[in-house]
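[job 4471] stage=fold_predict status=RUNNING
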Amino acid sequence: MSVHGLGWLGVRTDRFGQTVALYRDVLGLEPFHADEASVRFRLGDGTELHVYGPADEDHRFFGTAPVVGLAVEDAAAARERLEAAGITLLTELERDGDAAWCHFEGADGNVYELISGAGGQA
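[job 4471] inference complete, writing structure tokens
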């Protein structure tokens, strides 16, 4: 497994409006998706930055720390390697088109993601 870069960043926050305003109004990022639960931005290099608010049920396991997506060539193979090493896996491998991702708990107790394919920059 080789990590090629950072492919994604997710933030879950109770200060949803303020966090969205920081990225949109102060940093000048344009949302490509927005609803009551999340707002999603795309950076100049294609990396996605997602902000999840209290209405989002799917990402409660994130906690309050940012979740970094590590871009790998093959998320399924990388997940198998983590599993073999005894790493705590938090989600099954998910897919959307060419993209694949899953979440795991790092040794520091924080949540991380492996991502490959479209959006993963791998």
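[job 4471] summary: The mean pLDDT is 93.
[job 4471] exit 0
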